């Protein structure tokens, strides 16, 4: 009989395939000894596991080199060296021989010992090796314990449904659609950055499944529905028929959306709305164009560095920004400077362990503290201005001082480029993301120092409501229709209008039909979203009247609760949009 697990939708699409349990954690090793006569066998088992791990690492090295280049592939070199290091090998063997420990227990002991020794230093190189050491423990211990290899994802010929407790952006950035058909996690939320990446890569995903990683078995058949947030294990005939029917329905929806890609985004009463795409990887630019994006409203450049081993050089960055700018020769391209920290960590930067990473060293704060990282990016951005209307956007700004400091750095870099005779367009625009209540409340001051605002509702909601955007348990409380959020949006829109600068929204709210309706009503006329949502939102825009949206927004602004806000919007949008089509993904906004 089939087993149905319901979670929350995180990335569109449906998929079927075999379950791949991704359990990237050091396994628990039982304390066991062997009789004296079996000691040699244990030593042999250890060497066999070591040889196997070396072989695996070489394969992964080759695959990574083919996909991402040699620099990225070198990330595996320290682990390969460690497998031959006498400190590891001789230490483990003597634990087996002297204490008659099983190979796994001896290896674990030795590695824990090295971990404790290395952990006493704060040298960054050594701290890096600690990560390698842990990765090696995951590989070798799982092998010695007879568990399936958690690293064998890239070898799956058929394409699998990955089931995990949770994922990270650095794991997700290495996934690819050839091997992974779907993602299902116990924890996580739609606004976690790995889920955002999954959407960009068009890998269907469901989060908040509770115990999926415990109840699902490796190799089990499964169907994953990323639109309604469901994982079906051991699907029966009925489930399969429903799956096929939904697949066909989605193909029709996709055809309909491509059909409206070239139509203008104008409301029934003639208000044009700029609909732009959010981009996580430069390769998405083509899909964004095909689905009718009028430019790029947010390019999350940090995915050029997250999960990567080395800072991409200036040339590589210029190339990435140029590609995106040239894909949209007649429109604006808003490129956000690195938003690392929070849940996004590049491996080459030594991010501190923090109690509250989302309230910590993140985004503009990191950039201003890391001149090599930031200046390289600013130079690349300046140089990219010759290829199109490239606009620079700063994340998590709280204070005009931060903008001033960036302007100073830009002036210095401009000077440097002039000195070298390198071309750039000095008429570029610089703007900030409004992502904190402080920035929203201080918008009038910020407006004096920048050329545009782009509201990042994903963060604005988390910081306004003090609800971690990645916490599944709090997902019900993460409500963008909270009256406080609506008032802040209104305040920013009003201030931007008064200052004569553009206000756009590039958070998830813009891709929610009811959210888009609210934003239009607040006179926000530029929306940016992941490209798979472009046509749906364009359809919403084309089916509503700006006057109705304004009336609904006025009522929403006077509402006392999130439920009242939602009601005002549902009533305001009336029959113009079939909200049922969206209700799976946006159940929160419709039922609360
Ligand atoms: C946001 O916070 O709404 C946003 C667009 O930025 P990110 O999701 O990358 O934090
Ligand atoms: Mg943000």
Features:
3 domains, TIM Barrel, Glucose Oxidase, domain 1, binds phosphoenolpyruvate, eight-stranded mixed sheet, 47% helix, disordered C terminus, Enzyme I, Chain A, domain 2, alpha/beta, binds magnesium ion, eight-stranded parallel barrel, 592 residues
Number of strands: 16
Bound compounds, each kind once, are: phosphoenolpyruvate, magnesium ion
Spatial gap, N to C terminus: 33 Å
User: Could you tell me the radius of gyration in angstroms?
Assistant: 26 Å
CATH architecture of the largest domain: Alpha-Beta Barrel
Contiguous low-pLDDT stretches (5 residues minimum) are 583-592
**Strands in their spatial order, largest beta sheet:** 1-8-7-3-4-5-6-2
Average residue-wise pLDDT:
89
Query: Superfamily at the CATH H level of the largest domain?
Result: Phosphoenolpyruvate-binding domains
Structural class determined from secondary elements: alpha/beta
Beta-strand share of residues:
5-15%
Q: Which percent range fits the helix content?
A: 40-55%
Can you identify the CATH class of the largest domain? Answer: Alpha Beta
* CATH fold topology of the largest domain: TIM Barrel
Overall 3D form: globular
What does this structure look like?
- The chain has 592 residues and is an alpha/beta fold.
- It folds into 3 domains: 3-22 and 154-235, Phosphohistidine domain (Glucose Oxidase, domain 1), CATH 3.50.30.10; 37-151, PtsI, HPr-binding domain (Enzyme I, Chain A, domain 2, Orthogonal Bundle); 248-581, Phosphoenolpyruvate-binding domains (TIM Barrel, Alpha-Beta Barrel).
- Helix content is 47%, strand content 14%.
- An 8-stranded mixed sheet has the order 1-8-7-3-4-5-6-2. An 8-stranded parallel beta barrel has the order 9-10-11-12-13-14-15-16, surrounded by 4 helices.
- Helix 4 (86-99) crosses helix 5 (103-119).
- The protein is globular.
- The model is unreliable at 583-592 (pLDDT under 50).
- Magnesium ion is lined by residues 395, 435, 456, 458-459.
